Amino acid sequence: MAGYQGYMKNRSFFDVSMLAAAFLMLQACGDDTRQTQRAVDRTVPVVVAPLQFDRASTRLEAVGTSRALQSIELHPATSGEVIAVNFQPGQQVSAGDVLVELERRDEELALSLAEIQLEDAERLYDRYQRTGSSGAVLPTETDAARTAVEAARIQVERARVALEYRTIEAPFDGYVGITDVDRGDRINPDTVITTLDNRDSLLVSFNVPEALVGEVAVGDDVSVSTWNSRGSTAIGRVVDIGSRIDPATRTFEARASVDNKTDELRPGMSFRVSMNLEGTAYPVITETAVQWGADGAYIWAVVDKRAHRVPVNVVQRQQGVVLVDAPLEAGELVVVEGIQRLRDGLEVDYEPPSLADEPHSD
After folding, report:
1. By C-alpha distance, which of 182, 259, 277, 267 is closest to 221?
2. Does 273 lie in the same domain as 290?
3. Angle, alpha carbons 223-224-228 (nearest 5°)
4. Centroid of chain to Cα 28
5. What is the distance between the alpha carbons of residues 163 and 183, in angstroms, rounded to a whole number?
6. Same domain flag for 213 and 266
7. Which of 54, 218, 262, 311 has its CA 20 to 30 A from that of 39?
8. How many CB atoms neighbour CB 342 within 10 A?
9. Predicted TM-score (pTM) of this structure
10. What Cα–Cα distance (Å) separates residue 142 from each residue in 106, 132, 148, 274?
11. How many domains does the chain have?
């Protein structure tokens, strides 16, 4: 009996030893598996792309009002009776064409009288000069005669100017408008004879929000289209930019020149004005590559085959991409797929970008 008990005791000790050895082997196998798994986890496969830059774009839409390149209202320089109206409304005229004539007989007589007085003053002055050496004429009398000649010449010029004022001419090429002046009317400098427009090109004025100060520049292209059913569109260029912000509207005025050689457009028309403004160049990131944390948006950049978290500020969203503000340079590698398992400083595995993915120069 005692032998049997000793046998069982030895067997129990042997079984415990075997179980302990088996447990240690299993634990060792588990440790090896975990170490292998950690080694795999330390390298994460990702897809990268070289960073490219693009400019933030803003589309400006505004309502513009046009005026002719040169546009005036014609007034007479003096009062008088109209004796001839030499144009029809809408007629194209050239610079120097006489549009309206006023009664001019008094001015013609005044010019004739001034010319006679000038001739008389010149004869007297010549006589004094011829006899001046004999001492018969005092020097003061010769000086007075010379002054009289100059005064007579001025009177002639004044008479000629008064005579010229009796005709109203076109100061530049253009189209005249409607007139209410008829032959026989008496008009004065306050009377509007007609309008004259040089509409070879139009100046379209429009307002720009103050937030775009510095974005709109002279020479920028502008698309101008009418509001009618035909919707004709023309391309113009910014020629003037206002120097002040209107405190009531918080806008400033800009003006674009639009070619109108076909004469399809008219001064005073309103237009739909649109501009595509390109701003500062920013890094372009695909939407899926941008993540959000407690501190805001960030992306993963690859430096020396390791992932680095880079905080970014979203500037603008475009079609499938995001423009961000961040300390990045063109050509840097950015993780676009596989970002879920990344940690700062983690080693990553990726295929080198193809030539088609190389960043373009802006």
Report:
1. 277
2. no
3. 140
4. 73
5. 19
6. yes
7. 311
8. 19
9. 0.61
10. 33, 8, 10, 74
11. 3
| C-alpha triplet 214, 215, 216: angle, nearest 5° | 95
Q: Are 264 and 230 in contact (CB under 8 A)?
A: no
Q: What is the C-alpha separation between 143 and 149, in angstroms, rounded?
A: 10
CA atoms within 13 A on the CB side of 37: 6
Helix (H, G, I), strand (E, B) or coil at 119: helix
Length of the chain: 362
Which residue segment(s) compose the domain that 327 sits in?
Answer: 43-56+281-357
